[in-house]
Amino acid sequence: ECKGVGARLAAAVIDSILVSVPAGLLYVSVLADIFSGFESMEQAAIAEAAFPALLAFAYYVLFEGWFGGTLGKLILGMRVVKKDGTRAGIGRAFFRNLLRILDFLPFAYLLGIIMVAASSTKQRLGDRIAGTYVVARKSLARR
Fold first, then answer.
1. Rounded to whole angstroms, how far apart are CA atoms 140 and 143?
2. 133 in Cβ contact with 123 (< 8 Å)
3. Cα dihedral sign for 132, 135, 139, 141?
4. Which of 36, 112, 116, 130 has the fewest beta carbons under 10 Å from its own?
């Protein structure tokens, strides 16, 4: 059973909290001093914007690749798998999440939401390119 927009958005909210809290603590405790050492405000602004994006990207790729889902997906009983139901792996997770930026632009995941809602397999662009599916963990047990 492929998971739709509602379940995936709920997992994304959990993941956002799980990434934002440690990133914020790290920023306050260490990175603010590092970013203040840049020669220009533009360099500091780019670094400050890039850090959370790279942290989130690494989180999604590593958790989906190694564990079959982010903590949000796992808590809600979902997995990211290949068509045969096996774990997607790091390579597919990398490409799946590399394309997340296209889902995000131009209106905060509107394209991704539309693609999942309109797809019979409930795949966003990254899923289609990487050959991955977000499914209920219980549906894997029935195979």
1. 6
2. yes
3. positive
4. 36
